[in-house]
Amino acid sequence: MNFNGSLPLLVLASSLVPGMIIFFLPESRIRLRTTLNLAGAVLKLLLIGYMLWGVQHDQSYVFRYDVLPGLELIFKADALALLFVTLSAALWFLTTLYAVGYLEGSPHRSRFFGFFSFCVTATVGVAMASNLFTFFIFYELLTLSTYPLIVHRGTEAAIRAGNVYLAYTFTGGAVLLTGIVWLYGLLGQVEFTHGGVAAILGSEHTAQLQVIFLLLIAGLGVKAALVPLHGWLPQAMIAPAPVSALLHAVAVVKAGAFGIIRVVYEVYGIEFVQTLNLLMPLAVVAAITIIWGSLRALWQDDLKRCLAYSTVSQVSYIILGVALFGPTGTIGGVVHLVHQGIMKITLFFCAGNYAETLDVHKIIEMNGAGRRMPWTSIAFSVAAFGMIGAPLTAGYISKLYLSQGAEMVGMAWANWVLTASSLLNAAYFLPILYRLWFENQPQMWLHERIHVRGRWETHRLLLMPPLITAAATLAAGIFADTGWSPLFWVKLIAEVEFTVK
Amino acid sequence: MKNLFNALVIVLFAVLGLTLIWVILELQPPTHVHLSKQVLTQLDASGVTHPVTAVLLNFRGYDTLLEVMVLLLALLGVLAQIGKREQRNLSAWFRLSQPYLQVLLWLVRMIVPLMVLVAGYLLWVGGHQPGGAFQAGAVLAAAGVLLNLSGVLPSWAEPAWNLRTGLVFGLLVFLLVAAAVMVVASPGLLLQYPPASAGMLILLIEMGLTLSLGLILAGLFLFLSGDAIEDEAEK
Amino acid sequence: MSNLVLDLLLVIALLWSALRSLMTPNLFHAVVLFIVFGLLMAIVWVRLHAPDIALAEAAIGAGLSGALLLDTVGYLHKKQRESLS
Amino acid sequence: MFDPIPWLILLPLAWGCLAFLAGVGRGGRLAFAGLIIQLALTIVLARQIAMEGARHYAVGGWGAPLGIDLYVDGLTGVMLLLIHVVTLPLVVYARAYFSCQAEGVGYFWPLTLFLLAAMNALFMSADIFNIYVTLELLSLAAVGLVAAAGSAGPIAAAVRYLLVTLLGSGAYLMGVALLYGTYGSVSLTVLGPLLAATEISAAVFLAAMLMLTGLLLKTALFPFHFWLPPAHGSAPAPVSALLSALVIKASFYLILRLWFDLFAPLVTIPVAQLLGGLGAAAILWGSVLAFMQVRLKMLVAYSTVAQIGYLFLLFPLMMLPIPEAAESALQGGMMQLVAHALAKAAMFAAAGVMVLSAGKDDIALLSGMSSHLPLTLFAFALAGVTLMGLPPSGGFIAKWLLISSAVNGGQWGWVAVMILGGLLSAAYVFKVLCQAFLPPVAGVKFKPVRRVLEWPAFLLALISLLLGFRSGEILSLLGGG
Amino acid sequence: MSSALIYACTGAALFVFGVTGLILLSHLLRKILAFNIMGSGIFLVLVGLGQRSGTPDPIPQAMVLTGIVVAVAATGLALALVRRLLHFTGEIRLPEEP
Fold first, then answer.
1. Pair A74, A64: CB distance under 8 Å
2. CB within 8 Å: D174 and E23
3. How many helices (H) and strands (E) does chain E have?
4. Does residue B186 lie in a domain region?
5. Which domain holds residue B181?
6. Which domain holds residue A392?
7. Which of E15, E39, E82 sits opposite D159 (nearest CB)?
8. Which of A51, A61, A480, D15 sits a CA distance of 20 to 30 A from D150?
9. Could you give phi then psi for residue D187, rounded to 5 degrees?
10. Residue B208 CB neighbour total at 10 angstroms
11. Domain count of chain A?
12. Please, which residues have CB within 8 angstroms of residue A219's CB and are 6 or more apart in sequence?
């Protein structure tokens, strides 16, 4: 095995190994644990940086291992994988910092960080998986490693949320497995290939392929929280803030969306999906999810729950982009994978800050919090504007491409959906912003936890991550045209997907 | 419901029984393999002249090896049940309170030495006519049971090392012979006795087995019959 | 011919003792019948030219098993008397 | 060339006798040393099989049909490796377990060693009467182990188990008698070709029926499962682990052997479908009952009932006309067997530790276990992953192979059963995990346990989890013989 | 019809008696009796079928010897367990199935 081949494994190991060590560390070894975590995260980022450079210079990073004859484990760091890997590694680094601050002094931290690392490992595995078998392995590992994080607090409510989560994801996993096995039966072992491979099957398989597509999308749609399979997501917000942040921004929902991207582009091939008449239904489901999520978000009084419904809606932008049959729509969708990640993680970081510092959970309790915690609130506002799609933010870029894409393929109704969603986003975010900045703060914050506050408005480890991601939200919007932006990278990917024929 | 189930079972097994009988009556004798002839032709190489003993200790000696292990195993299961109890000769006191047993006692004193002789004889003739370790062991065991019933021999408690040694002695002899043959005479071949010494080896094994089988079979009774006394002692 | 009659008589005795030992209400009788069954089996083995088995059956099947069963019946009766008193 | 076959038979018997000679409660160290030697022998044998293929071994040098033949092939190799790999950690576990709780240690070691001897002999035997003897050896050892715990519950369970298993052996032996009457031989090597070459008489049908029914009874396939949960649930934890992981597999192995080697000419699709249907019923019924249990070890025992069901799905799938589907069904079934053995041993071992620590076998008392015994709970969870068939465990590979076989053959019913079974097993595994994640009930004190008790379960669970990555080797050994 | 065949048929009948008794009787001691009768039945079939032609066949005879020993071993173990159960519960029947 050459060095390039082992790189994907190293990327996996950089979080798996610290996770395993941490799991067995005694609770009191805080410093060692943090060092291990951060070292792993930095190492991962460095490795990914190297691979990003390499992929641009036509290097390939593939690892293969025969589990059984005809059943291969393949990791491949292609452009699309690296997009997701970079996102998750970067956000993992920040979330780890955040979690260290957030969980200071709480019990079972070794367990928490152990599973936290496993979770990222699984996400990276999902990203780099280069066939459905490998993908499925890590997809299920993701479920397993996130469950202990969701029930981490060990309360009745947390356990109940965990059960709901499991019921949804295991069922989804089973459906997905059926689809994958069926597809293997028809196609044999298939690597993800630009432009898809399913088209080689003759027309006598059309009906089967349609059913399989349905199974795959349904299985993936559970994690991607497509309506009506989204029920677990609002429940899961019971988890500690760093977990919610990771779940919503990178790990679980993104794994689902990413899987859909892989299936549509690299298993079936976008054109073949179109000929199977499956693209339109997918677009419709995505549109319904977008609207439904936003509508539900409007009625929530709990901040994290509101954000959760917002996630339901936003993730389907990605699906909608995929379902728009054309490169521009693709760019809009795939880039939103990144953009939504950084924006949503900012929002959850901030929500965690409010909860942890001021014990504010409900939206009506947020009156005047902007004055008390200006930096957090600035970050929150930036991300909220991004969600609405205001210019200069990352969200604007996504929506721009999406609506252009919709227009180019003559799906004008998609534009209406996007507009409506933007309006709805504004309708639930702007009141919050208004409360933050313009309402008077209460005489005193009843449950303020003084001890977490240092020189800053809150613990510095809690403050830094949202500021960084908020800055990234702006940067991704303002410098969208430069060579280092997510958009640039996504354009490369889209080019490959659409010009391969 | 219960009755219905019972009736169903009875009908089912009646049908099974009739089918079995029909099948047995219909069956043609085997035409391809004639094992009993093979036994007779190979008898010379087996070291004994009695066909059943030849099968039991040479041709299918492996079965016998496992079978004596089954016996020991059953005894282990029994021992695991009796728990710890003190060895006390309560038996005689307990049983001799019944006067008619006095007669039995007298009878037993006469008969037991005879039985040991019979066991020895059975063991010896096993090589060339009916008899052998199992029958001899069974007779020994019967002697033990009689002794116990007549109150001469107490029921056994947790076996000490000497009794344990006696119980596994024959089995260990069997294993040792097997291992020795495999190392010395025919390397890597299990239970393949050299024809010249087969008779001697089989007799050796049978002697060991007679002792241990006798003890084990007697033990099944002697260990078990003790728990009546145990209850007595509890009171 | 006399052999056939003997065989049939044996079979009938065998089946009868087996059935009775399973069905008879008195447990002690059942065990005694079982011992009888064992002895009959020993005779059957002789009839089948299997003296080895006949010896073993008489000593082990009827003798030892019988003794074990009888002893257990005694134990059972003792237990039952205890629980009654 | 050194031949490990006879030593694999003699040594465990010798260990058993010596352990008995050593006295009450003794023999743990002997068992450990003996097992290491035997594991080495097994590895040598497996390598020989992999390189030279299957072979016969004539005990006593007579050869079938006069003497007894042994037969080793890939399947034998896999089974032998499996029992030694599973038992070795359990020996360490049992030593620690009985040092905490002396109840049931009495003759545990000789009984266990004889149990191993019986399995070694059984897996290698190619003689249906010899197999009967090994079956009895196995059953009596297992019953003795169950009863060793020595209170009314385990003893009633042991009596039931004993009677059922004797009935099973009886039916089996009747089949042997009929086969001997028909063909004049009890050797599989002789009988197999004879059955294939001659016209099948009614006696052979009846023999097959009796033998299979007897073995099904011992394997505890639904609806013959009634004896299993009390027996496995009330025995001491190391015993439960051995029985659930290995002993029932022995009779399943025999079914497999007889089905393919002996009765191949007379198996029909409806019979296979019937076995599969019973397997499916076992999966669903066992899982549901497992979920409803209030005692942890009973839950694990019912899970065994369910998991056995998967093994029987391979019979209808093997009858598929598509060769690849049939092959992957067999492979999947064997993977399931191996993975379940490892996982179930781990699960019972972990459950035993938790029960020991909680002082009572009750799921409701597990609250707070996640902080008290995280490693044990982790082991339980990992074993659960295998049972659920989630990646990357051996159970996943098994399920993948079985499902792909069923999908390729268009057998959607079996697919649905397997999927549903996986979800149901998730339900009962997570029932335990959820309880353990709850905060401890005030006033409940957990007893501390020795660390050495925690590791064997974890090791076994880890092996079952990582098995998925090495399944290629197992299946190539399986196919090599 | 040779006498061996008669005994083989008797064996079949005894086997059925035994199995039925083992399943239906609830008294444990009777179950043990039934098991022994079942065993004897099987042994008769084994030897009887093997010696249909009238010549003694040592192979099944040796097997039956083995079988008798195994049966007595099982009987001993079963009785030990039954006595223990009796000691604990005072019952000689199994509790109803759970």
1. yes
2. no
3. 3, 0
4. yes
5. 49-81+88-234
6. 278-501
7. E82
8. D15
9. -90, 130
10. 22
11. 1
12. A172, A173, A174, A175, A176, A177, A178, A179
Residue A32 maps to a domain = no
Exposure on the CB side of residue A255, measured as CA atoms within 13 A: 31
**Structural domains counted in chain C:** 1
- Look up the ipTM and state it: 0.92
Give partners of B (≥3 CB pairs < 8 A): C, D, E
CA distances in angstroms from A19 to A29, A110, A122, A481, B201, listed in the order given: 14, 9, 12, 37, 63
Nearest chain D alpha carbon to A149: D437
CA distance C8 to chain E (A): 8
Q: Select from D140, D155, D171 the Cβ nearest to the Cβ of E73.
A: D140
Chain E contact for D174 (CB, 8 A cutoff): yes
D331: which 2 tokens? 């492979």
Q: What is the dihedral of CA D224, D230, D231, D237, to 10 degrees?
A: 140
Chain C residues with CB under 8 Å of E15 CB are: none
Query: Considering only CA atoms, which of A110, A83, A123 is closest in space to residue A476?
Result: A83
Buried b (16+ CB within 10 A) or exposed e, A173-211: bbbbbbbbbbbbbebeebbbebbbbbeeeeeeeeeebee
Residue owning tokens 């069923």? D406
Q: Report d(CA D465, CA D474) in Å as an integer.
A: 14
Q: Name all chains with 3 or more CB-CB pairs below 8 Å to chain C.
A: B, E
CB of D226 less than 8 A from some CB of E: yes
Both structure tokens of A413: 């109704």
Q: Is residue A427 included in any domain, yes or no?
A: yes
Q: List the single residue in E48, E74, E79 with the smallest CB-CB distance to B224.
A: E79
Q: Which other chains touch chain D, taking contact as 3+ CB pairs less than 8 Å apart?
A: A, B, E
Contacts of A178 in chain D (CB under 8 A): 403, 407, 415, 419
Could you tell me whether strands D68-72 and D55-59 are parallel, antiparallel, or unpaired per DSSP bridges?
antiparallel
CATH of the domain at E54: 1.10.287.3510
Q: How far apart are CA A91 and CA A86, in angstroms?
A: 8
Q: Which residue, among D131, D161, D162, would best test binding to E if mutated, counting the most E CBs under 10 Å from its CB?
A: D162
Counting the structural domains of chain B, the total is 1
Contact E77 D140 (CB under 8 A): yes
Task: Say yes or no to pLDDT of A283 above 90.
Answer: yes
Closest-CA residue in chain C for B134? C56
Chain pair B-C, CB pairs under 8 angstroms: 52
Q: Provide the residue-wise pLDDT of chain B in tens; the chain has 235 residues.
A: 788 999 999 999 999 999 999 999 988 888 778 888 888 888 888 889 999 999 999 999 999 999 999 999 999 999 888 765 544 444 444 555 566 667 777 788 888 999 999 999 999 888 888 888 999 999 999 999 888 877 778 888 888 888 999 999 999 999 999 999 998 887 888 888 988 889 999 999 999 999 999 999 999 998 888 765 555 555 4
CA distance D355 to chain E (A): 21
Which helix (H) or strand (E) segment holds residue B117: the answer is helix B101-125
Domain assignment of residue E31, yes or no: yes
Listed by number, the residues of chain D in 272-331 with a beta carbon closer than 8 Å to a beta carbon of chain A are 331
Q: Does E22 touch chain C (CB under 8 A)?
A: no
**What tokens were used for A32?**
């060692």
Residue type, position D40, single letter: A
- CB contact at 8 A, A284 and A125: no
D415 within 8 A of D400, measured Cβ to Cβ: no
Number of domains in chain E: 1
D156 at the E interface (CB within 8 A)? yes
What integer pLDDT is reported at residue A499 of this predicted model?
63
Structural element, H or E, at residue A87:
helix A79-102
Residue E22, classed as helix, strand or coil, is helix
Q: Do B175 and D9 touch (CB under 8 A)?
A: no
Contact C18 E4 (CB under 8 A): no
- Is the separation of the CB atoms in A236 and A244 below 8 Å? yes
Please name the helix (run of DSSP H) or strand (run of DSSP E) that holds residue A76, with its range, or none.
strand A71-76
